Amino acid sequence: MTVGEIAAIVSEHGFDVTFTGGDPIYQGEELVELARTIHSQGKTIWCYTGFLFDQLFSIPSAMALLPYLEVVVDGPFVEALRDISLQFRGSSNQRLVDVGKSTHDQVVEWGNDFTELFF
C-alpha cells in the first residue's frame, strides 16, 4: 500500500493511529512520510518502542519522526515487570511519554486525563 492509500483509509474511518511492533523505529525513515500525512489530517499518533525516549535523540530517523507523534510508549516489555493494571502498556518499566512536553533531558509522562486524548 502507498502512503496515500493508508492515509485515505485513516481519513475515511476517522481513527487515530498507533505504530507498534516489531519496533517502528527500525522503519523510522519509511514512517516519516506516513506520519506527516496522517498528522496533517489532525490525527493523533502514538508509537510503541523498546528504545528509551532519550535514546531516540541519537537515531536520525526517530528524530525525524518525533514531531508527528503525540505519545511514545518507551522501553521494552519485561515479563517480570508485567502489570495488567497499567493503562496502555504491559510492564511497569514502560512510560507514556508526552512528546510535545518532553525534551532529551526531561521526560514528561502523559497524564491519565482522558480529555487530553478524546476532547
Helices, strands, pairings?
Layout: H1 3-13, E1 17-19, H2 28-40, E2 45-48, H3 53-56, H4 60-65, E3 71-74, E4 95-98, H5 115-118
Helix pairs in contact: 1-2
Oligomer: single chain
Instruction: Tell me, briefly, the overall form.
Output: globular
Protein structure class: alpha/beta
Note poorly predicted spans: none
Radius of gyration: 14 Å
As a percent range, the share of helical residues equals 25-40%
Describe this structure as you would to a colleague:
The chain has 119 residues and is an alpha/beta fold. The chain is built from five helices and four strands. The protein has a four-stranded mixed sheet. α2 links the parallel β1 and β2. α1 packs across α2. The radius of gyration is 14 Å and the shape is globular.
Explain briefly what this protein structure is:
The protein is an alpha/beta fold.
